Amino acid sequence: MKAKALMISLLAFSVATAVWAEGTVKDEPIKPIEAAVVKDPKMVELGKKLYFDPRLSKSGFISCNSCHNLSLGGTDNLQTSIGDKWQQGPINSPTVLNSSMNVAQFWDGRAKDLKEQAGGPIANPGEMAFTHELATKVLDSIPAYKEEFKTVFGKEAIDIGMVTDAIAAFEETLVTPDSKFDQWLKGDDKALDDKELAGYKLFKDSGCVACHNGPAVGGTSFQKMGLVEPYKTDNKAEGLVAVSKQDADRFKFKVPTLRNVEMTYPYFHDGAAKTLEDAVHIMGQIQLGKKFNDEETANIVAFLKTLTGKQPEITLPVMAPSTNDTPRPDPFGKGDAAKVEGADKKS
Amino acid sequence: MKAKALMISLLAFSVATAVWAEGTVKDEPIKPIEAAVVKDPKMVELGKKLYFDPRLSKSGFISCNSCHNLSLGGTDNLQTSIGDKWQQGPINSPTVLNSSMNVAQFWDGRAKDLKEQAGGPIANPGEMAFTHELATKVLDSIPAYKEEFKTVFGKEAIDIGMVTDAIAAFEETLVTPDSKFDQWLKGDDKALDDKELAGYKLFKDSGCVACHNGPAVGGTSFQKMGLVEPYKTDNKAEGLVAVSKQDADRFKFKVPTLRNVEMTYPYFHDGAAKTLEDAVHIMGQIQLGKKFNDEETANIVAFLKTLTGKQPEITLPVMAPSTNDTPRPDPFGKGDAAKVEGADKKS
């Protein structure tokens, strides 16, 4: 009886251990991304329409998706972005993917959350060049939008707070779980090959992980760009100091996420590093005082590529048409009566 | 026996008639749109990626979808489009929706089909400002694209013909069946209300339907813009004459489709008519010598709005990232080493 009871206990214990082991995530400084939990699907749907709607811009041509393109890893892959009238932006467009995990928004952290960020580009003269007042006026003139806002928010008049709440709700769903690395974290030891594993070990041991950690492999702190050696750049952005006014915060930027980094080139706040190899090499040097050789760089790059997760599956929204009351877009700055020239060009 | 046989025959005849009537489309000059038949789903999928890929433009910012936006009824809702470096386009962007039914492509018909049209904007210096050679070079440098082209076309090297074949295959799926009007055509007599029906009758009786007919309610011929009265415009486009070199073809343009017309404002080749009411009023006057009063205009507009069909449901494609070999986009015209200025602006 005793032997039998003992065997049953041992068996139960093994099963319990196996179950516990299966469910155990490796204890690493990088954590897996969990799938988004959608609390208000109607708000998310409305937010998606707004995210893709270029009528929130002066020209009627630029939407959130223009610079945070969900077909391209959530960014535009340009050194800095193109704004109204083709103005050259001052800083690299961060990816919207997994941005919900950022400690703050923008490279200088001036927006505390996604909601606060969303209103920025709409009214930025170098970007969408519109105003919050005009944006809500446009939306208010479109019955289908009015109805949708009323359903979601229970109010008659549309205000910018509702617009940014909806956009933020949509952006919160833009996470990318199930990367090869997360599969490895969750117990699939075959998910990484030798190069990738070697790259991760180097990433950890060198100290990259001191800043690039957590579920977003970044986004959790502000750090000086050019910690060990100054970072040489023509870019005039000085980061956090713009918000804190503390001299010690000069050239401190929000650590970007490395999730999907193989899709979010070019790199750094100035977008000056064109390739992952460049980025790894420079980071090693200026942040850690390390000169990675070609093999080490290649291994780290191999690891970084394992951080590409499952891209959000988006059904392209179809927006309701403008009405006769909707303020017209003004791309060429001559008001409604813009003349069309150059029709001798091939049309 | 005879009476019974007669009754059975009558019954059978009634049933047959009812079945025949149910399946009968009304004999009208506008025909219903049928759903697209997808012959090569892999080619369509590839075509969709290309359609949404801004790397086919010099700036890396403009894709087919920029000006033929599938969230906005297949056009950009601008009088004329925005091209590379914010150049002002010379002519209104036609909708891609149902464009497969056009007798030719472009307002002047210079491309015979969708395939021929697709290569135009890529290499147009006022539009995407790229070259076919560079576009295929970009695609060729991306392994996932190479693989996809090989699977679809069975060839190693990518050429522009394959690119345009794929884009055309995707565009062929962009039809919009099941509008209220088509439901009416197919036998649902309750699908149109009195105003809409009155509008359609006027559309027919006035002669609009002489040009705007067929499944696309247009697209089947070239007609003079300003048939009865000249059309006053600053736009320099002269239409078909550019292709035929025949003086009689001056100001003849391809009749645009009226499908989804409530979404495809502003109207005419010069985009000068901002509202449907304006468009109907002007058309009546210059093409038919008719002065529609407010009620007639309103009825025709009500009818035109019944031509909005079921919009294609598109899963946003996610494109494979560029590689270290991919030619870099050049939005600001200074080559790869573009300096970033103005970082004192809010970023």
Automatic annotation (TrEMBL), chains A, B:
Asked if the record carries the keyword Heme, the reply is yes
User: Which residue intervals are annotated with compositional bias (Basic and acidic residues) in the record?
Assistant: 327-347
List locations, semicolon-separated: Periplasm
| GO terms of molecular function | peroxidase activity
Signal peptide start and end residues = 1-21
Name the domain of life. Bacteria
The membrane spanning regions, by residue number, are none
Region (Disordered), start-end ranges = 315-347
Q: Which residues form the Cytochrome c domain?
A: 42-150, 194-308
Principal subcellular localisation of the protein: periplasm
Keywords, comma-separated and alphabetical: Heme, Iron, Metal-binding, Oxidoreductase, Periplasm, Peroxidase, Signal
**What is the protein name for this chain?**
Cytochrome-c peroxidase
